Structures are given as C-alpha cells and as structure tokens.
Amino acid sequence: MSLMILMSDRSQVMREKMVEFQIEMRGVKDPLVLRAMRKVPRHLFLPASQKDSAYDDAPLPIGFGQTISQPYIVAYMTEVLNPQKGQRFLEVGTGSGYQAAVLAEIVDTVYTIEIIPELGKRASERLSAMGYKNITVKIGDGYEGWKEHAPFDGIMVTAGAESIPPPLIEQLKDGGRMVIPVGSPYLVQNLILVEKHGKAVLKRNLIPVRFVPFQRGQ
Ligand code: SAH
After folding, report:
1. Do residues 60 and 53 touch, judged by C-beta distance below 8 A?
2. Within a domain: 2
C-alpha cells in the first residue's frame, strides 16, 4: 500500500471522529451537512504549520491575521441555512475556501467574496486544484454582495459585522436565509439567522460566537 493511501486513510479516520464527537454529539443532524463534513479534506486548507491540528475542535490561523472556523461552527452555520441541491449560495469571507467547499458539496453553485487579495487568490487556486468547478471566488468587499448572481437561496457571512449589510438582505431570494455574526469586532457576537418572506425580514438570535472582524473598503 502506498504512503499516499495510508495518509488519506488517516485523514478520513480523523474526519469521522471529528464528525462524531465534535459535530453530531453537539446536535447537528442534517445528513447532507454531515456527509460534506466527512468528505472535505480540511487539512488541505491549512498552512503547513497548522496541518497537524486540522481536525482539532478549534478555529486555526490561516495567515493575514485571519482564521478558519472551528469545524462545529462550520457545520452548524451550514445546517442553519438548510442547503439543498439545485440552489445558489453566496459566502462573504472566503478565507481558506473550506466553508465554500463544504457548501459546494451540497448546493449547485457557490459564489464567495474575499477582501484580502492574497487569501482570495490562494483559495481560488486551491479550490480549482481540488476540482471544485462550482465555486467562483471574487476579490472585493462583500458588503455589497454580488448583484450579478443574485438572488441567492442562502447567504453566509463568516466575518463579524457591526450590523447586517442591507445589500445582502436585498440579494436574498424570497424564502431565502442568511446567517451572519453581528456584534462588536473582536468581542462576542451573536449569530443571527435572517429569513426573508416577501417584504418581511425575520431575525433570530442563535448562539454567541467570536469571528474576525468584517472589514470595509476595496
Ligand atoms: N470562511 C473562511 C474563514 C473566514 S475568516 C474559511 O472557511 O476559511 C473571515 C474572512 O473574511 C477573512 O478571510 C477576512 O479577510 C474576510 N473578510 C472580512 N471582511 C470582509 C469583507 N467585507 N468582504 C469579504 N471578505 C471579508
């Protein structure tokens, strides 16, 4: 058996444990989400110095002062959006590209925006090299969303905003959902679920979270 096979077996075992003990035991049940979390090789999204920690129950640094979220948070935020085949999603805050890959295992198309050019470029190259053809990365300020591809069935914001950007609500489909951490930068934020029903926009507090700040400009 080649070393490559041994290594991929090992990461598969670590993902199985991650899903069982960090994600299912905390209550995430959606089989589509659990399957995606079992499949996406999280270690390939991390800098060499962090690879050994890839399946730890923690967020990890990805360079440029940014972080990849804890696996449970990735799974939880994905489940909350109830993603389905046939849908089109927007992510704001590409970072490593890991969350985009998890979404792309479930929905048809993922558009994702990253404000730090080098991170966006690396994520885009990584996702192409891994064979993801249904993810498009753009470098820019996600505050404005991505009008050309709107409306979206789901929008996920993975940086902590001080308020909900109105363009993102506009670009949500009728019946669509958005999940976004809202609160003070670097302090605890609330994960908010936004649901759009015609003109009505419902907002619900989910759980306290801590994300890197939502930046502006570009
Ligand atoms: N979802 C990522 C982790 C996100 S960390 C992953 O799976 O790896 C948050 C990311 O949001 C950072 O990369 C940060 O640069 C980016 N970001 C912050 N403000 C932004 C904005 N206004 N538009 C787009 N990206 C933004």
Report:
1. yes
2. no
Residue 87 lies in a domain: yes
In the reported structure, the alpha carbon of residue 6 is separated from the centroid of ligand 1 by a whole-number distance in angstroms of 33
Domain, as residue range, for 201: 58-209
Separation of CA 3 and ligand 1 centre (Å): 34
CATH number at 167 reads 3.40.50.150
Q: Residue 93, Cβ neighbours under 10 Å: how many?
A: 26
Residue 42 lies in a domain: no
User: 63 in a domain, yes or no?
Assistant: yes
Give the number of domains in the chain.
Answer: 1
How far apart are the C-alpha atoms of 210 and 189, rounded to whole Å?
A: 6
Q: Find out whether 215 and 159 touch, Cβ atoms under 8 Å.
A: yes
Answer yes or no: are the C-beta atoms of 159 and 183 closer than 8 Å: no
Per-residue pLDDT of the chain (218 residues; tens, 9 = 90+): 555 556 568 899 999 999 999 999 999 999 999 999 999 999 999 999 999 999 999 999 999 999 999 999 999 999 999 999 999 999 999 999 999 999 999 999 999 999 999 999 999 999 999 999 999 999 999 999 999 999 999 999 999 999 999 999 999 999 999 999 999 877 789 999 999 999 999 999 999 999 999 999 85
Q: 144: CA distance to ligand 1 center in Å?
A: 14
Active site residue 69: yes
Pocket of ligand 1 (CB under 6 A): 62, 66-69, 92-93, 95-96, 98-99, 113-116, 119, 141-143, 158-159, 212, 214-216
**Protein residue with its CA nearest to atom 11 in ligand 1:** 93
Cβ atoms 45, 63 nearer than 8 A: no
